[in-house]
Description:
Blueprint: H1 2-37, H2 45-51, H3 56-69, H4 77-85, E1 91-96, H5 102-108, H6 115-121, E2 124-128, H7 136-149, E3 155-159, E4 162-163, E5 172-173, E6 178-179, H8 180-190, E7 193-197, H9 199-203, E8 216-217, H10 219-223, E9 228-230, H11 237-250, E10 255-256, H12 263-266, H13 270-273, H14 277-281, H15 292-295, H16 314-317, H17 326-329, H18 341-344, H19 364-370, E11 381-382, H20 385-390
Parallel strand pairs: 1-2, 1-3, 3-7, 7-9
Antiparallel strand pairs: 4-8, 5-6, 10-11
Helix pairs in contact: 3-4, 4-11
One iron/sulfur cluster (SF4) binds at residues 232, 270, 310, 312, 314, 325-326, 333-337.
Amino acid sequence: xxxxxxxxxxxxxxxxxxxxxxxxxxxxLHLDLMERELPPPIEPLVEQLESSGISRRSFMKWSxxxxxxxMLPPIFxxxxxxAAEQFGRVPVVWLHFxxxxxxxxxxxxxxxxxxxxxxxxTLSLEYHETLMAAAGYQAExxxxxxxxxxxxxxxxxxxxxxxxxxxxxxxxxxxxGRTGMEIAREVTSKAAAxxxxxxxxxxxxxxxxxxxxxxxxxxxxxxxxxxxxxxxCPPNPINFIGTILHYLMFGALPPLDSLGRPIWAYGKRIxxxxxxxxxxxxxxxxxxxxDSGAQKGWxxxxxxxxxxxxxxxxxxxxxxxxxxxPIMGGHGCMGCVEPNFWDTMAPLEKPIAxxxxxxxxxxxxxxxxxxxxxxxxxxxxxxxxxxxxRHNQKDFAKPEDxx
Length: 403
Ligand code: SF4
Ligand code: SF4
């Protein structure tokens, strides 16, 4: 019996090792291809790191952490570093619709650049309404040029929801007064992949909150296409960077959950990684802001923490160079990466009424069973660029063997 187990383990190990060897080969081939086919970055990352006083050693430490975050084995560490150096080769067209520009602000603006920020600065932004100097007809020409120069090769990043009411007329943009719907349809149809940055473009967010007078929707819903969604209000930069790195390394976007979110970043609940979890298990809760439980760092469930219903890696990767994250700072998670969180997670500082603690649930799995209706983060589909191109009609439930 024991011998059978050992044999099975050995076979499994050999299979995993063969799979990784195949992935390494594919990764090297794709990185070579990217270097050959795409123009070199205007501002090479190595120079950016040097001028900011960031050592190679720190960069390799960052690569190791990012490799782990991407759920890849250590053999990919040097490949993640190589892909990061090529980040600026991917042409990006960045569209803004109904939003506050907070995602761009959070991702691209910083007074104390860390490695994530420097990598984002190398992005080859062919068009970005907030950052480009051009305006009016000249801006529209820039967009046309980008679509003409990189057909099927650029990544379309979208920030903001699409108002679909009145045939899209709640949102018109640019000198020609085209609707957001028209622009989004044209640009996404020519892109290699569409990445929705933030909860607005992913799921509609505050624009789509009740009563939603403009009938605002996330891009996937509004256009009926599959998108890669990086929700968050704002999202963590590493989730965007990791998704592009995966594309650079494998020529494909990472596997997605049923809501279009990369599984490596959104595959686990906040509650599963939370440092306050032992207090939850011990029944130790903050009952009031500033009480002795708050001072001792107890669980924030009774103060409305939505960590048990929220799928994201905030606790693992944290924000601001890994310094902290909301629960560490003393406030519960608001579930900002989940669809319609303004409506489904309200009230934000109280437990959800019909799902309060004390309903018999004792473990996170019990909560998961009770709350299965709140989030539908079933791990269902693999989103690859080819998949997106072959299935531009929304179809999240394709079996994996078709991908
Ligand atoms: S309920 Fe919130 S604070 Fe408490 S353990 Fe879960 S995620 Fe952490
Ligand atoms: S902790 Fe919750 S509310 Fe805060 S950023 Fe993460 S998912 Fe959003």
